[in-house]
Amino acid sequence: MRIFPQSNFRFWPQFALWFQGSAAPGQGDIVIAHRRVYIVPSRLGLYFGGALAILLVGSINYALSLGFALTFLLAGMGLAAMVQTTRNLARLMVRAGRSEPVFAGDAARFRLAFANPGGHDRPEILVRHLGSGAQQTIDIAPADTADAVLAVPAARRGWLTLGRVMLETRFPVGLFRAWSYVEPESRCLVYPRPEASVLPPLAPSDRAGGARAHAQGSDDFSGLRGYQPSDSPRHVAWKSVARSEDMLTKQFAGDAVAELWLDFGALPAALDLEARLSRLAGWVLAAERAVAIYGLRLPGARIEPGRGDAQRTACLEALALFQAP
Amino acid sequence: MSQAAALAPSTRPIGWQEFALLLAGLLIVAAPHALNAPWWLILLTVTLFVWRAAGVWNHSLLPSRWMLVVIVALGTAGIWLEFRAIFGRLPGVMLLFMFSGLKLLESRDQRDAAAVVFLTWFLAITNFLFTQSIPTALGMCVAVATSIAALVTCAAPRRAPRANLRTAALLLGQAIPAALVLFLLFPRIQGPLWGLPQDSYAGVTGLSDTMAPGSLSQLSLSDAIAFRVEFKAQTPQRRALYWRGPVLMDFDGRTWRLGYPSFAELEPPATGKRVEYTVLLEQHNRNWLFALERAASVPANARHLEDGQLISVVPVRTRLRYEMVSAIEAEPRPGELRRVLERARRLPQGFNPRARALAESWRADAASDTEVLTRAIQHFRRERLQYTLDPPLLGRDSVDEFLYVSRQGFCEHFSSAFVFLMRAAGVPARVVTGYQGGDTNPVDGTYTVRQSDAHAWTEVYIGGTGWVRVDPTALSVPGRVDAGLARAVAAGDTLPLLLRPELEWLRTLRYNWEAMAHQWNLLVLGYNPDRQRELLSFFGIKDADWLDLASSLLAFLGVFVLGLFAWMLRHMVRPDPVQIAWNEFCGKLGAKGVARSPHEGPRDYSERAARDLPAAGAPIRSIAELYIALRYGKHAAAEKVVELRRRVRDLEFG
């Protein structure tokens, strides 16, 4: 609701800007406008009201001037507390941080950064994820930031969006409960739940030139080859890099490792889609542990064989988003 | 940062900081009550405090629930045995006093802490039942501040204690404007709403409705203030200041009692010197009001009695302020009811034979009542009876013993003896009690009458003249009326502290303090429905009803909350000057019929505006360019912002 139409701005632009609570934020920041801070008395606040009523009736009955003064001082304190409780949330800035991918069944850790633009501290702000009930209490120093990490259970693979987050505070005296909602643009990639199972047998490569005869592992050093972007940084021959311009990767001769194809189509037909993806995700992890060179084949997608963190991430991402629900 | 703690703030345990604050608040509000508490209750409460303090270090020391129930039962029974009541004012306060210890002992989590805070406030207000002096008010302010600091600490236990104290102080400071408005404008109702306990006003000092030897001299040892007076014009001479109180008619040989007169219309005296003044009467839980003899007006809610007393319709249980007009040194008015005169001659048989014989000898020699009176006055002048604050105890024939044996007494002895002699001689006479004199506070010019100014004098009825005031004390000891008690008593008598001549500095201090207390009484404690009406009519609101008060109150409080909010957010308001200038620009174009639609970017908008308003096409485009450069460019130079503002201001449409 715009209380001040555009044309009124020239008369008192500062006040109008302030009233609308729209100090220009940076990109991606959410500013909690004070009009969006809701406030009601807490249960303690209701008791407080009752206590004030008793004090007032006693003051009237015994005609205690100072009784009135005490009652009204406390009532004024209640009003000031109401304003301060609202202030504890008003103008707070929220920015969504990065959240690392997780496996289904684990908790996605959404990171939210809160910035306090004011010159006063904001203690005891409860950050609560409405969908899951995950919550954390944070204190933000004046003109400072604080992070909240919400551990939201990730039930299904695919993108998990954070959704609505409630910020709540009862500071400074607990008589009022102020809250506001934010919906930061934050999402977390959820990989399929990995199923622990035995790796499939080596399949013949469909690459021209037939199956690779040599086996590769990481046990014994067997030479250098050109660097490929999927190579693990651990295997880069940094000494050689320092000497020459070329990036080289160390090759090791193993005994049990060969190029491996993780094939969606090769899984038993009895398994449903999610079960197949779970098994494939489990294989990706197993293959990575076994330091195998592995590729992934999905209907309509294919990831060339490789090894290392990038390969692992690419495979799991493909599995997470395959026909994403 | 524990997630469990965040779940239910009310079940967090009380930490030592909260405990210290709660304890401090409770101690401040409970300590004054210890003066009224029996020794065992003080012991019990202190034990409970100490017990709880021990529990801070070792939780297992805290008592179980059934133990608490036993303590409550025993303590309540003890209070009942002590006071034979649970619901009176004092027993009620004593119960609260005990519960202060019990509740603290029982407190474990933050919900309990809040209950302790509420209890602190209740105990604070009960202190005002006993005294509403400035020191008490200050003490209770400290207690309230402490309890609020405890609430803040409960709400933010991880915060630095100093920060929490600062927040509590800020809350209280911000509360003051709202409290002031509420105090002035909250619709006041004159209490009580229901019957008060019998003992509500026990222990107030003041004149009583009886007078026996020794009763007034006891009262005279008190420095307590009876009432204060503000004279409209000059303060009359001290010797003329007879503040009339209860008139005592009936004598049983020892004690004088009230005559229970009926109401009578006041006929203002035609003679005498007219004095206008305002009285601020301290509460004394009796109906009578004090006024200079003779009253020429009756205050609101008061009645005039046939014996010249003024009484309030309800007992004076709060400090009462009333306007008065009196005529001092007015001529008596002849005429009195026969039954009153008969009653004013009555004496019990078989008391004071010597005094009776003396009176009868005067009667035999004298031709008229006037002559009897003259002889009595001469007798008192001649006899040189001694005036003392410490009169010896008298036996059955108190008047005889005073006149012939001890020959020293206080004003009750003088007046009692004089009236006895008059009645024995057949002349109607009565005892008038009240106050004589007073002193001017040099600091604020208020005239102060204390309990030590309590006095008793007499009135004698002379046919054809009326009731004539005779002060037998003044006859024997002229200094009493001219110079006050201190000059009149014999050296060596124990005077009230403030009347001692050597303590001049103390008196000065006291004058200053009392001047302040007087203002406090007038402005703060005396603020009642009447004063509220006066205040509002001062601001031009006549006959305000509670609806007017409530609506103006709500308006004030609304402004207060909004203002406070604006003030608190002021640091966070950093309006962007570029945006302000742009909004002003959009407003100017909008007034020309080219309003910006929400989806339009600055470039599209300015292009459209420049097309629609070709006369100002160039400046519109340049403003838009400048705005885009400032808004989205890398550097926002201050002089560019100034230029943008200037150009927007200078924008003309030809």
Task: Give an overview of the whole structure.
- The complex is a heterodimer of chains A (325) and B (654).
- Chain A is 26% helix and 30% strand.
- Chain A has six helices and 17 strands.
- In chain A, the strands form five sheets. Chain A has a five-stranded antiparallel β-sheet.
- The two termini of chain A are 36 Å apart.
- Chain B is α+β, with helices and mostly antiparallel strands and 654 residues long.
- Chain B has 24 helices and 17 strands.
- The two termini of chain B are 64 Å apart.
- The N terminus of chain B is likely disordered.
- Chains A and B meet through helix 1, helix 2, helix 3, strand 6 and strand 7 of A and helix 1, helix 6, helix 7, helix 8 and helix 20 of B.
Proportion of residues in helical segments of chain A? 25-40%
The portion of residues forming beta strands of chain B comes to 5-15%
The largest inter-chain interface, given as chain pair and residues per side, is: A-B, 69 and 88 residues
Note the main sheet of chain B.
7 strands, antiparallel
Going by helix content, strand content and strand pairing, the class of chain A is: alpha+beta
